[in-house]
Structure formats: structure tokens, C-alpha cells
Design a protein that fits this description.
mainly alpha; hpI Integrase, Chain A; 3 domains; three-stranded antiparallel β-sheet; 6 strands; elongated
Length: about 350
């Protein structure tokens, strides 16, 4: 019992503000009320400032990263890759004590990453991109956030309030109807299965890997259910009767093999020119662009594409036919009274 009466008639408070393994606090009082008040005060103070407990957290940054990997990271599909990247970052930061790690340290680290003073491969010898550094910041900040959720980190997240670099939005390419026809024609000449993968991507907005890994169990009448997705959630998309019959006519449980390089070869022969890094993903962009240009709903598009954050889907909002049409109808010249318009026209030199 934390508060008890002694044989002398006095009352003693005995408590452990930081847990049974931490510092014990004992004090005697003349009355039970004083002892209870002291216990509440001591425990509340420890709860309000848990990182100020008696035991000093001497774990290094590498210890924290390894703990994150054991308790959470190894369950992620890319967990091992992220862990390897985190260890490289920790070594570059000279593995400080986790409680001593600050946003100032990371600010100097990322400056050296930008200039190439710190690099992890020959590819980044001349400096890493802001996108790469923002991703590294997210990984490291996520370590502290996840351990806090697991009760393994009680101090503030040192990177929580650190702003990332502002990144200019990349050019987003999509195919016209003429380009789609050209692409499908050339794909059929290469392989009927390749053409079918492209049609599935264009019909459902699927990622290339989702379409290539399609199995018979994912096909129901006029519908495809995508599983093991990037967003970790299954999603079902309706398909046409013609596409359904074309897929279901294939043999075997798994329909396709990896045909990425076949697609690359076909694209190089077409007249289509794409921004760097948008080879297969242009099919997903094309679905979304035509969906919005045809009057589709942005919230429906979010569900179809499986975006966790609506901000990702909003990249396509400007393609809607009514997007910003109010600028045409409500600008000051359009709303000017007819008399003022005539006066302005006469006054124009």
C-alpha cells in the first residue's frame, strides 16, 4: 500500500513515480490527508514530465532504430530496406545518444547530404535530392513516433516540428485517345498478354505490379479485386463484360509473368514521349485524367485508386471540366456592368 500508518502514529507515503524499477520516494506525515496529497503530487509530476524520471535514458540512436525494427519495422513490406537506410543515417550522424539528438543535428546532416559531403552511393556523390532527404527525415521521425505509440519512447520527437524542404510538383503525363490506340496496337504486336495487362491498368487505374500479379481468385463476374496493395487495403473495381471474358479465358491460376521490359521495349518504339520515371505509371495517370475529364467525382476516384490521403488524388482535380470555370464567369471584367464595359472600350487607346 502506498500510504500506510506507522506504529508511531505517523503516516508514511511510499511510491515509485517512474515505475517499480525506478526511484522509490518515501516521506512521513502527521496526517493521512497530507500523505495522500503528497502521493498525488509526486505521481502527477512524474506523469506530466515522464522524460525527467530518475533513470537516465542512455540508449543511442542506433539502439532506438534497432528497437523500432524489432517491434514494428520487420512487419513492414519495405521494413528491411528502411532499416538499412536508417543505419546509414545513424552512422553519418555519429550515433549520438537518442535523448541528445536534436533537429539542429539533422539540419546540419541534411545540409551535408545536399552538398554531397555525406553520400551513401556513387549515385548521390554530387548531392542527394531534397525529395530523398525529406524521405529520410520521414523515416527517422517515424521511428520516434512509432516507439512513442508503443510506449518505448516518452521524450518529445526531436523532428516533430522540423519543416521539410518544399518540393515543386512534378510534371504528370497522361495519354490521349490516339496515343492509347497506338500503344495497344504495338503491345498486341509484341504480346497479347502484354496488351491485356495494359488494358487492365487503363480500365481500373491499377498499378503495374497489381495488374501483373493478378490471380484467378481475384476475378469475379465483371469485377477485379486488388489485394496486397501499396495502401494495404483491398479494393474492388468493376470491369466491362468484354474485359472480364478476355481475362477469364486465360489458363492457369496466375495469368501473367513480369513483362515490364517488354512494355519498355514497346514504348521506345512508339511516338510517345514521357517524363523520366513515369513509364508504367502513366497508365494509372491516364485512367485518372480521363476519369476526371469525363466528369468523374474526385472522392470516387480516391477510392478507385486506393489513395489513403485525398491530397494525392487532388493532383487530378484540375482536369475536371468545371475546374475553376468560375474564374471565367466571376472575374472583374466578366461581372462589369454593360455601361461600364462600353465606357472602358471607348477609353481604350
Amino acid at each position: 500500500m502506498a500510504v500506510r500508518k506507522l506504529e508511531t502514529g505517523r503516516w508514511i507515503c511510499e511510491c515509485y513515480p517512474t515505475g517499480r524499477e525506478g526511484r522509490r520516494v518515501r516521506r512521513q506525515f502527521a496526517t493521512k490527508g497530507e500523505a495522500l496529497a503528497f502521493e498525488r503530487h509526486t505521481m502527477d509530476e512524474a506523469a506530466a514530465k515522464p522524460w525527467l524520471g530518475e533513470t537516465v535514458d542512455r540508449r543511442s540512436l542506433k539502439d532506438i532504430v534497432e528497437l523500432w525494427y524489432r517491434l514494428h519495422g520487420k512487419s513492414l513490406s519495405a521494413g528491411e530496406h528502411v532499416y538499412d537506410k536508417l543505419i546509414l543515417m545513424v552512422d553519418a550522424l555519429e550515433n549520438p545518444m537518442a535523448t541528445a539528438f536534436t533537429s539542429k543535428m539533422f539540419a546540419h546532416y541534411r545540409d551535408k547530404r545536399l552538398t554531397g559531403e555525406i553520400y551513401f552511393s556513387e549515385k548521390w556523390k554530387n548531392g542527394a535530392s531534397p525529395v530523398t532527404i525529406n524521405l529520410e527525415q520521414s523515416h527517422l521521425s517515424g521511428v520516434f513516433s512509432e516507439l512513442a505509440r508503443l510506449g518505448e519512447w516518452t521524450a518529445p520527437n526531436p523532428l516533430e516540428n522540423m519543416r521539410k524542404f518544399t518540393i515543386a510538383e512534378k510534371e504528370m503525363a497522361w495519354l490521349t485517345h490516339e496515343q492509347i490506340a497506338e500503344l495497344l496496337y504495338d503491345c498486341r504486336r509484341q504480346s497479347a498478354l502484354l496488351a491485356l495487362v495494359v488494358k487492365i491498368c487503363l480500365s481500373t487505374g491499377a498499378r503495374w505490379r497489381e495488374a501483373v500479379n493478378l490471380t484467378r481468385s481475384q476475378i469475379t463476374k465483371y469485377r477485379i479485386t486488388f489485394v496486397r496493395t501499396k495502401g494495404k487495403k483491398n479494393r474492388s473495381i468493376p470491369i466491362s463484360k468484354e474485359l472480364y471474358e478476355e481475362i477469364i479465358a486465360l489458363d492457369g491460376f496466375r495469368f501473367f509473368t513480369d513483362c515490364y521490359f517488354q512494355f519498355l521495349s514497346v514504348m521506345e518504339k512508339t511516338s510517345i514521349v514521357l517524363p523520366r520515371g513515369q513509364l508504367t505509371h502513366v497508365l494509372r495517370h491516364t485512367f485518372a485524367a480521363h476519369f476526371m475529364m469525363s466528369g468523374g467525382n474526385i472522392l470516387a476516384l480516391q477510392k478507385i485508386l486506393g489513395h489513403h490521403d485525398i491530397k494525392m488524388t487532388m493532383r487530378y482535380a484540375h482536369l475536371a471540366p468545371d475546374h475553376l470555370e468560375t474564374a471565367l464567369r466571376f472575374n472583374p471584367l466578366a461581372t462589369m456592368p454593360s455601361g461600364d464595359k462600353r465606357a472602358a472600350a471607348v477609353a481604350t487607346p
